[in-house]
Amino acid sequence: MKRIFIIIASLSMFLSVYANEPIKNVIFIIGDGMGLNQVCTLESPNHFERAEYIGLSKTYSASHKVTDSAAGGTALACGMKTKNGMLGLTPDSLPQNSVLTILQEKGFSTGIVASCRINHATPASYYAHQPNRNMDAEILSDLYKNGPDVFVAGGNKLLSIDSLQNAGYTYVNSIADLQKQEKGKIACVLAPEDMPAAPERGNDIVLGTAEAIRLLEKNPKGFFLMIEGSQIDWAGHGNNAEYMKAEVEDINKVIGLCMDYADNNPGTLVIITADHETGGTTVVGEEKEYKYSTGNHTGVMVPVYSYGSGSENFSGIFENTSFKDKILNLTDKKVKK
Ligand SMILES: [Zn+2]
Q1: pTM
Q2: What's the 317 CA to ligand 1 centre distance in angstroms?
Q3: Domain of 151: which CATH number?
Q4: How far is the CA of 176 from the centre of ligand 1 (A)?
């Protein structure tokens, strides 16, 4: 009897150590404008279906029932609702650090991969503090000050290579040159403005993600990587089903790569969500015809898919502002010895 008690006690001690293991790596994937019906364009099986937990995120902003990508990105990144158009500021214009900035200050490596320009609203939510998403010069000066360790996106036209280099970045403009990099801050800028649409841009977002992970994982402390499928939103604005399918297929490949990484690297959490839905997209008829009810964003909840260590914390219905604190708590857990 005593021996059984000892076995149970040591087993529960082992489990409590395991359960309190901090999350080391967080990969946060945003499909801009990606509602459930966008995901339904994929044939089954697909990588979304590997998710271990599913939730729903409420997307309204501080000023509107239907958010824009600046307020939506700010909620996901900085954990508070703000007014449409604002980046990294409360509605009263007080700057709030993003989960990326806070983890960077705690010694994690950080990265952003996006299929738009680096100064576009969603990536900018993670490093900028500006009252208007169109203030490109100010947003870029925030990038030079607070940017992630590694980024892969478009934006050459407005970026200053000198300013990037002064900020400590090594500048490259191709995936091939990115693959040669071994350490330090890396800016990989692949297009003058936004990246080309899928499928014309080939595998740049998938390859850029693989390279970002290769560079970031060198830090034994861990990393935070945000990846945005930016153009799912633009396909919704254009009510263009073929464009939408190609963009969702591209982010599906990224998700597969990140989930495989989590399989091979315990302590890795993968979250996939959206800032809002775009297009009021529906799938009708036996022929799976895609129809749209608007050329704008909609106010519906968006799905949250999670996978890997800590994924059980992302089921249920919650505000889009919940991600920051959940991620900070999970990465901060002290291991009980
Ligand atoms: Zn949009």
Answers
A1: 0.93
A2: 23
A3: 3.40.720.10
A4: 31
